[in-house]
Every structure is written in structure tokens, then in C-alpha cells.
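#help-structures

NK: newbie question. if I give both the sequence and a SMILES, will the prediction place the ligand too? trying with adenosine-5'-diphosphate
OV: yes, paste both and it writes out the complex. here, I ran yours:
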Amino acid sequence: DWVLALLAVVLFPVAGLPLRYFSKQLRQTGRRMQEGIGRLNAMLHENVQGNRVVKAFGQEGYEQERFHEHNERLFRVYMRQSLLRAVPITELLAGIAVAGIIYYGGASVIAGTRTQGAFIGFVITLFLLYEPFKRLVRTNYSIQQGLAGADRVFELMDTRPQVVDRPAARALHEVRDAIVFDGVSFAYEPGEPVLRDIHLRIRVGEVVALVGMSGGGKSTLADLIPRFYDPTEGRITIDGVDVRDLTLASLRAHIAVVTQFTFLFNDSVRNNIAYGDPQRSMDEIVAAARAANAHDFILELSRGYDTHIGDLGVRLSGGQRQRLAIARALLKNAPMLILDEATSALDTESEGLVQEALERLMANRTTLVVAHRLSTIRRADRIVVLVRGEIVESGTHDELLAQAAEYRKLYELQFRDLDVPEAAGAEELLGEEGQARAGKAC
Ligand SMILES: Nc1ncnc2c1ncn2[C@@H]1O[C@H](COP(=O)(O)OP(=O)(O)O)[C@@H](O)[C@H]1O
Ligand SMILES: [Mg+2]
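OV: that's the protein plus ligand as C-alpha cells.
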């Protein structure tokens, strides 16, 4: 029956028209849902991690309010999503189409232009079609939501890392001569240089201390060596080879980094020390822990080297965490070492132990140390003063103290009354100002 068939073929797609609109809406809300869940998770994480700060500042109410707000927003997106899924507009239109066909067909049977059998047969076929059509619509909703999720996943997967191996990159096998900064400038944001025309040569085995006011670019300069960022201008070479021509893996295998922010993984003490090389033997791990002055306190933990850092939570002191990080660096046994204010967050007692551990770590390694301890600085072969991204002075402690204005200023502010006396000379200097540990460090 071509008339009825034509009606069905024309009317059903019309019922499907709103589907386009709904699909788009569903994808949008699906996306917003994903984002909302991400935000809420990030906030939960923040509040659990930073619970001490929240409590200390009495901001429980504020945080609760913030959480409630995000939660409420997410709830509204969920509601909208459910509403979109629940609106039976497609079914309604399909129903109207069916009704129209029945009305037209029924009228023609009554008028005698069509036999009852042909009409009933057609209607049954139509109803058989109706159910799969409805299911197709439902399935489409699920697909749209899945697509919204997939969009976000692919967006992340397609993000290109800024620092990658060059196609012809080769492996670094040994550092024989020096690490050289050759006219290096760097900016995180275009037009806002953080480092300007840095020329610096760190010979193998040398200890270079980097000093300067907070925000001067010390950490940034240190970050360029393992290529956490690439210079905006100029280049960094190792034995004459641009670090960008070396494979990242081989470059980083030659560098150990210890910073003031020690990061420990939610894993055993042992695995935290052997991080990056699970094949290490227990003997090697213990030796590293001993050299890092960590062995004794590890043995006092409930399950020794098998104690889970996650279980310890915040029970490890800053100095203990630091010594675990040093043990990790010792075990890595890389020839180049970057220390970034590695003792800045410590109390006097831990500091001695950490300082001792650091010294063992620095032995026979090419070291760049961002420092504010006079003891560390005095031991450096050379001190480089960084002011607003530029190297303004360099030399030994005595040389600089005798003639360098910036260094003397820093010394007055940061080092003089902060350092534990060690050499007789230092004691003398300290005597003048007393031993007040004024909180002047950056
Ligand atoms: N990831 C970053 N993105 C943008 N700016 C940054 C970033 N890290 C540091 N900076 C900025 O670069 C400057 C130098 O910072 P940094 O190298 O950490 O100094 P320092 O270690 O000497 O205190 C500062 O002005 C700081 O705000
Ligand atoms: Mg820094």
C-alpha cells in the first residue's frame, strides 16, 4: 500500500527531528557534568589535604559553603540531564504519527477503498517498528553522554607535551666536561622574562651555589637543566651538546633533584627510596638510607622498611621526609645533582642530620645548589647571585663579601643571622648580631 507506506516513511523521520536538538543538549550537559565532577573531586582532595589550614583559619564554614555551591551546581546539571532524557517529545511525535496513520487508514477502510486485512497488517507492522524506534532514541541518549566523556578524554590525550625528544636525539652516556648556559633567556608568559641572558658554566665536580631573593628565578634556572622547561632563547649544553639533542630519558637519568617540597608516594618506605628502580636490592636501599641518616628512624617505624607512607600520613617530620628524598637521590646515584633550598623547611635538629646527608650526596657530584645556608654557600666552589633573572655577581664567599654589593645585601638579610656557626670565622660573624633566628629567609 504505497500511500500508507509513504505516510510512515515521511512521518517517522519528522518524529526523529527533535532528536538532533536533544542530542546536542545532552552532549553539552554531559560535558558539564564531567567538568563538575572533576571540580568537586579536586575540591574534596584539597580540603582533605589542607584540613589543617582550614581548621587553623577557622574556615570550615566557608569550605562547606564552597562545597555546597559546587555540589548544587552539579546537582542542577544532573537534573537538567535527567529532564532532557525524560522529555518524551520524540515518542509523542511518533505517537501522533501513528495516530494519524490509523485515522487515515481507518477512514479509508470505512469508506471501502482499503480492505480490513491490508490495513490491520500495516498497523501491526507499524507497531512492531515503534518499539525499536523508541529504543534507538534511548540508546542515542546514552551514546551522546558517552561521547561527551570521550571528548574530554581525547582532549587530554591529544595535548602535546611541550618538551619532547627530537627525532634525532641521542643518548647521554657520560658528563665529562661541563654544563653550560649559553645566553639563556626564559619566560613562562610571553613578554615576561624570568631569566635574561644567562651565561653560566658548571664544570664537572664543581659545586655552584645559586643565591638571590625569592622570585629571582633560581628554581626556574635549575628546572631548565633536566628540561622541565626549554629556554625561550639561547641554549644549555652538556659537553657541547644542546640538551635538546639528547633523549629526555638519558638526560634525566644523569640528574638527581632534591627540593624543599619532598614528594613521597603512597607506597612503602622501601619503594619510595627505590623509586624508579624496583630491582634494587635491600642492601643497596639500606646503604642509601644509612648515608641519608634515615636508617635509624625507619627502623623505629612499625614495620620498618615495609611501613606504608600512606599509613603514616603526616606523622613523618619534615626532616624525615627530606632524608627519605635524599636516600632516593643517593640510590639513583646520578652524576649531576640539583638541590633547591633542600633544607629550608627544617628545624635545627633535623637540619644537622639533613645537612650531613646532603654532604654525602654532594660528594663527587656536579652540583647546582639553590642555597640560603651560609654553611652550604661557604663550601661551594663558586657562588652566583641572581637578581630579577640576571646574574649580577659571582665568585667565592670571601671574594663576594669583600666587593659585591648585592651579595652583601643578601648576606645581611638572609645568611648572617640564620646560620649555624661552624667555622671559627662564621662564629665570629654571628657573634656580632647574636643568634636570633629572625624569620627573614625567603
Ligand atoms: N610555573 C610558573 N608559571 C608562571 N610563572 C612562574 C612559574 N614558576 C615561577 N614563576 C615566576 O617566575 C619567577 C621566578 O620564580 P622562581 O624561579 O621560583 O624564583 P626563586 O626560585 O628564585 O624564588 C617568579 O616571578 C614566579 O612568580
Ligand atoms: Mg625557588
